[in-house]
Amino acid sequence: MAVQFKSFDEWQKECKSKNLPLWQPVMDFEKKQKGRTEEEIWQGLIEAYKVMKDAVHTGLTEEMNSQSGLIQGGAKKVANNKIAVLTPEFQKLVARALAAKEVNSCMGRIVAAPTAGASGILPGVLVTLQEIHNLEDKEIMEALLVGAGVALILEQRASLAGSVGGCQAETGSAAAMGAAGISYCLGGTIEQTFNAVAITIQCMLGLVCDPVAGLVEVPCVVRNASAAAIANSSAQIALSDVSAVIPVDECVDALGEVGQSMEERYKETAMGGLAATKTGQAISKRVLIQDIEVLDDDTSNG
Ligand code: SF4
After folding, report:
1. Which of 171, 212, 277, when mutated, tests ligand 1's pocket best, judged by the most ligand atoms within 8 Å of its CB?
2. Cα of 224 to ligand 1 centre, how many Å?
3. What residues does 72 pair with on adjacent strands?
4. Which listed residue, of 30, 95, 148, 251, carries a Cα 20 to 30 Å from 155's Cα?
5. Dist CA 101 CA 119 (whole Å)
6. What residues flank ligand 1, with Cβ below 6 Å?
7. Residue 294: pLDDT band with limits 50, 70, 90
8. The whole model's pTM is what?
9. Domains of the chain: which residue ranges?
C-alpha cells in the first residue's frame, strides 16, 4: 500500500499476487506517508499498544468518575461482579473495553483508534485476545496494522466519525478493525478476515450518534463494550466460513450511504435519540448550569 487502496478487493489482490501478509502493504503505506522507517513504525505501534494496556489498567484500578457524574467506575463493577454472563473471558472483554473508554471520558490518556469515542474497543479486544491465545506482542502489532488498513479504506469510502456517519461509522469502524485483527491473529485467511469486517459492519449498520448532553459518555462507553463483543462474534462467524453474502466493499458503501442519509440530529449534535429523551434533556440542562458555574468561578477568581 505504498499507494492507498480504495477497496478491500485491491488490498486482497495486492497481497495474493505478491504473497504478502495483510499488514505488509499497510506498513509500506505508513512508511511512505509518514517518512519513517519500518523500525520506527513498529516502535510507534509498541507505544500505542502500551497506552492501550495502560488505559485498561487505569480504568480497572483507579477512580473513574467523569466531571458530569455520568460515568462512575462502571468497568470496575463489571470486572468485580461475581456473575459472569458467558465466561470470565467475556466478562473481562466487556470490563476492559469499558475501562479504556472510561479513561477517555475522564480525560485520561488513550489511543484514538480510530477515534476517541471508540477508544475502548481495540484495547478490550486485543488485550483479551492476547491473553486468551497467548499471542506474542509482534502478532498484536501486526493486528494493529491490519486494523489500520481497514480504517484507511473505511475513511475513504465511508467515514470514521460520528459527526459525519453516525455511531455506526465510529464504533462500527473500531469494531471492524478489531474483528479483522482477531481473524488475522487466529490464522484466518484474507477472505475470512475481510468477511469478519463485512459481518461487523452488517451488525453495526444504522447506529446513530446521540451522545447525551453532547458528552462522549452516554451511550458511548457502553457502546464500546457492545462493539467489542460484536467484533468477537463477527470474527467467530467469519472464521467458521459463514459468508456475509454481501461483499465487504459493498458493506462499506452501505455504511457510507446510511451515514449520508442520516438526519443531522443523529450525528453528534445531541438533538436526537437518547440525547433528546426527557432524561437526556434534563442532564443536558444540568451540565450546562455546571459549566456556567465553573465559568463564573473562574471569572470571579481571575
Ligand atoms: S454516540 Fe457518537 S460520540 Fe458516542 S461513541 Fe458513538 S459516535 Fe462517538
Report:
1. 171
2. 9
3. 65
4. 95
5. 6
6. 117-118, 162, 167, 170-171, 209-211, 216, 219-220, 223, 268
7. confident
8. 0.96
9. 8-301
- With beta carbons less than 8 A apart as the criterion, state whether 251 and 244 touch: yes
Determine the average pLDDT of the residues in 58-74.
Answer: 97
Residues 125-137: what's their mean pLDDT? 98
What's the average model confidence in pLDDT over 38-56? 98
The full length of the chain comes to 302
Residue 70 has pLDDT above 70, yes or no: yes
Nearest CA to ligand 1 atom 1: 209
Average pLDDT, stretch 229-244?
A: 98
Q: What is the DSSP string of 12-74?
A: HHHHHHHT--THHHHHHHHHHHHT--HHHHHHHHHHHHHHHHHHHHHHHHS--B-TTSS-BSH
- Phi first, then psi, for residue 267 (nearest 5°) are -125, 65
DSSP H helical ranges for the chain: 8-18, 23-34, 38-61, 74-80, 88-105, 121-133, 137-157, 162-165, 167-185, 190-204, 220-239, 248-261, 278-301
How many angstroms separate the alpha carbon of residue 216 from the centre of ligand 1?
Answer: 6
pLDDT grade for 290, boundaries at 50, 70 and 90:
confident
Tell me which residue has its CA closest to atom 3 in ligand 1. 216
Compute, in angstroms, the gap from residue 19 CA to the centroid of ligand 1. Answer: 38
CA distance from start to end of the chain: 53
pLDDT of residue 1: 53
- The rounded mean pLDDT for the chain is 96
Q: Are 177 and 122 in contact (CB under 8 A)?
A: yes
Fold for 8-301, please state it.
2-methylcitrate dehydratase PrpD (1.10.4100)
Q: What is the pLDDT of residues 18-38, one digit of tens each?
A: 999 999 999 999 999 999 999
Q: Can you read off the three cell numbers belonging to residue 239?
A: 472464521
Return the C-alpha cell found at 206: 444504522
Q: Is the dihedral of CA 197, 21, 145, 30 positive or negative?
A: negative
